[in-house]
Amino acid sequence: MVNKLCEYMTQCPCCPCWGSEKKDAVPAQRIHIQHTCLDQAHGHGVRLDSTSSTAESVRSYRERVDSENSRTDSVSSASGISVDSRRHVTPIIDMKPIEFWTANKESVQPRSKRGRHPSESEISVENFQRELYETDPSEDEPPSLTDEEKLAQFQLGQLHFGLKYDVSSKVLVVKMIEARDLPPPYCLDETKQDMAHSNPYCKISLLPDHKASKQTTVQRKTQEPVWNECFDFDIDYSEAQERTLEILLKDFDKYSRHRLIGRVLLPLSSVNLVKGGHMWKPLSPGDKECQDLGELLLSINYLPSAGRLTVDVIKAKGLLQTDIVGGSDPFVRVTLVQSEKPTKTKKTSCKRNTIDPVFNESVSFNLTQQQLVNASVVVSVWDYNYKSKDDFVGRVVIGYHASGPQESQHWDRMLQSQRSPVAQWHSLKSRADCDQVSLASIAVP
C-alpha cells in the first residue's frame, strides 16, 4: 500500500516537484508545500506537509514509513487491533524552526529587573522636585557661637538696646542705650590716622529692608558711648516676626568713610516683642567693603516740543554724615555733560542739619532730540561747610554714560515715555566707582 501511495505521488500532475525528471533540478532552499491526496483504496485522505523534496529525502522517508509500519503491525497484532483501523499516518519530517522575527527588524530588549523607566512627561521641568536636591546651608557653615564665645573670640565689645512692640499703634520701638568695651581705633585703621578714641554711632535696619534705616547721633571720642535714643518702625506684628534686626556700629571718620566696628543680627521671631525688654549682645565682624552713602529719589522728564530736559530732585535718605556735630547740611549739584564735556551745572538749596533731606526742586536744560541721544546727567550730593571746602557725599550718572544698570534703565524708561515724568530711587556711589564706568563722571570734578 505504501509503495502504491509513493508511486501515485510521484506521478501526480499537480506536483511536478516529485517527478523523476525534476529530482536533480530541485533547489536547495526550503519551499513550503501542502498537499492533500485522497486514498481511493481506503476511502480517506492523507495530508503531507514538507519543506523540501530530494531523492535522498524520498528514500529516507520510505525507510521511516516501513519501520513505522512494522512497529505498528506488531503493536496492533499484540493488542488485537487490525491494521485497517488506522485512520491517519503522520510522516516524520526533518525541518528547522521557523524564524518569526526576521520580518520585524525591531530589536527586542529584555525587561529590566530594576523597574519601569520614567516617561518623558514624568521627567519634565514641571515635575522637578527642587526640595530633593537642595542642600541645607547650615551643614556647610560652622556651628553658631554663643554670646560668650563671640565676645571672647572677636573682642569687639557689647551693645545694650531694648525692644517693644505697641499693638495699638502697630509700631516697633527700638531703643539704643549704650555700648562698652569697644576696640581702640588703631585696631581697625590700617593707616593709623586716628590713634585716639572712636566717634561711634549706630545704624538700625529691619532686614531685608535697608532703605527704612535709622541712625543715632555721633558720640565723640569715647569707647563707651551712651545714646538713650528711641526709633519707631511702622510695621505689622506678623511682618515684624519675619524680620531681622540689624544694628551696625560705626566709627565716624570723614577721611575713611566711616569704618565699621561691628554689628548685631537678631531675628525678631526669637523675641517676645509684646512683652519687650532690654538685652546685651556682643558685636560680630561685618562687611567692611560695603559703603552705604545713602539714596536719592530723582524724576526726569523730556518735552520734545519745547526741547527741555527736566530733572526733579525730590528727596534723599540715609546720607553719609560728614559733620560730627549737628548732622549734615546737604545739597545737590546737577551737571549736564555732552560729548564728554560739562556744559551747564545747577544746584538745589541747602537743607540744614539732616541726613534725610526733602528738596522737591527742579532744574531744566535745553536740549534737542539729537543732543539728547548722547547726553548724560551727573547728580552729586555735597555737604555744605561754612569755613572749609564742601564735602563730597556721593553721586550717580544717568544718561548715555550711566554709572550702572539701574541708571541706564531709568534713562531708557524716560526715552520711551516722553512728556511723562519717571521717578526712581538711586543708591549713591563714590566718585572712584563712578569714574571707573562713566566718562561723564570723570569730566565732572
From TrEMBL:
Residues 155-281, 292-426 form the C2 domain. SMART domains: C2. Residues 73-82 have a biased composition (Low complexity). Its main location: membrane. Keywords: Differentiation, Membrane, Repeat. Coiled coil: none annotated. One of its GO terms (biological process) is calcium-ion regulated exocytosis. It is a peripheral membrane protein. It is found in: Membrane. Residues 42-82, 106-146 are annotated as: Disordered. This is Synaptotagmin-17. It comes from Elysia crispata (lettuce slug).
